[in-house]
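Can't paste images in this forum, so I'm doing it all in text. The chain is below; anyone willing to post the predicted structure tokens underneath?
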Amino acid sequence: MAILEVQGLKVMRGGRTILHDINARIAPGCVTALIGPNGSGKSTLMAAMAGMLPPAQGRVMLNGTDLAKRSRRDLARELSFLPQQLLAPDGLTLRELLVQGRFPRRGWLKAWTPRDEEAVTRAVALCDLSGLMDRRLDSLSGGQLQRGWIAMTLAQDTPVILLDEPTTFLDIASQLSLLDLLANLRKDGRTIITILHDLNQTAQYADQLILMRDGHVAAQGPTSEVFTAQTIGQVFSVGARMLPDPVTGRQICLPASLPPAPSSSADQMQSDG
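Text version of the structure:
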């Protein structure tokens, strides 16, 4: 069964169609990655999956219920979403940011509980933020702030987590640490949907892939089946050679520029003349 399902989804912005008749199924307890070139519609699809964009056609179902029929508060208890671009509120400390992740669970007037504290403490530990809790957000590095946003999302403590390019601003060690974290959350039964740009990181960590191009789903399915030279070549317009990882056995992609198209006989004659 799919925990999240997109059915015939069409999304428009400024009178232009961004997503065309999208159908996708997200399996529970898996890491699903959306990949594709810039402008392919990945972020738009994720925002629609999070209930942030109204569809012009079709629907998104969470556990069999249309998102359009769920209140924002009710939805936020089951699904958390970290978009790509966020503005840090002026004067806020890191701890105050993480506390905001608990609002769907507590409301504005309810007292802080041991369960709230436990969720924040766990998120801090998972994102390696101890010692930074009293720092103002504007004093943090880009990587520290990004981990803070991720921790706020984890503090929300939802079974479904959507992350749009979560490795932005992170160095390679922090990227791998985050991807290991997502893998561990999957083992705890969480469903992770993320957008990643590094193809080989994606292939190593994602269970399922949705490959997008020009607002369409070009391919989807288990990573072992759809992460191929043919699909990568078609989606990204590159050449691709696949090799097995010597440790995991998963495929590694070596992309390359496509060779120039051969000129026609007429073009050759004109060039010679």
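Residues 87-156 form one domain. The first strand starts at residue 4 and ends at 13.
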